Amino acid sequence: MMSRFLNFSYLITITGLASTVTTAAIAAIFPVAMFPTAEIAQAQPAQPRKIAADQVYEQGRQQYQLKQFAAALNSAQAALTIYRELNDRPSMAQALNFLGNVLIQQKDSVRAIAAYQQSLQISKAIRDRRSEGNTLSNLGAIYYRQGNYARAIEVMEQDLAIARELKNRPSEREALTNLGLAYRASGYPAKAVAYELQSIALARVLNELSLVSAPMQAGLEFAGSQTRNVGTVAEGFRAWFVSPTLPPAPNLRVIVRNVTPGMNPKPFPYTNRTYDKGWISEELILGFGTKHDGDSFVLADGKNDFTYEIKQGDRVLESGSFNATITRRNPPALPEIPSPGPQPSLDGDGRDRAGSFR
Prior knowledge:
single chain; alpha+beta; Serine Threonine Protein Phosphatase 5, Tetratricopeptide repeat; 2 domains; 4-stranded mixed sheet; 42% helix; disordered N terminus
């Protein structure tokens, strides 16, 4: 079975969709010419066709690893042809999944998606949940790269459910990481953090922290931003504090101080927010200036330096510092007041010509 090997160094992993797939449907999208590998397989009548197809398929995998993608495509299609003739549906699903991976390397995302969807159809029909999860992961990766984050999240959630059903913890960690990136890219930092922190916790158990793409630094999530501690904001915008090492828990609060040079230190601008549920702090309302404002957390345009303390009562459970880069967004200019157009003529007592008051 192919492994889920297209990971987030490429941006999310890649490994098929519903109802059975017919030989004619596959052939219509992936017509197979006579390739040398197919000819070799057909030239050995004494050898079982399944063994020949498996050899061609394995040859394609080796070609893929050597980055010989044109040759790998020929091998994948040749193996798929034989599997179709044998009606070997598990091998068809595997070959289609591999074919999608090769097509991605050739920047043919349309045919890659078609291959993955057909692989997924077969996997569902034969109830091969592992193959189904692999293909969903690959589909999610393509949708992510295309900027179709809603579709990516939909299939990634399905992938996560299957990984948990199969108790496949490495695949679960991978799916959590992918979902964190997808939610972050779609502008939902709170949901992104939820998946990122779960991914980090599981990665620690699996000794896979090096594979986690979620940001590890504590700091601020800004509404609409895809990167922690980077924000383009205006007065009244929202942000949230998050720590990857100490998630919210009952009776916790977090105090964040802006100690940027030039800020009035008496006291430094600060915010004291609840940090007791979910994955992030209570929201902060942002403002700009140099001194503390009781209604908002004051920032400077440019680089800002912060310290923080996470406390339970008077006890400090975690403290640290971080910086954030802020770009101030000016509010849109007010629209010009339009010139008055034709108005109904009024009588002197405030009635229009029909006699009703306006």
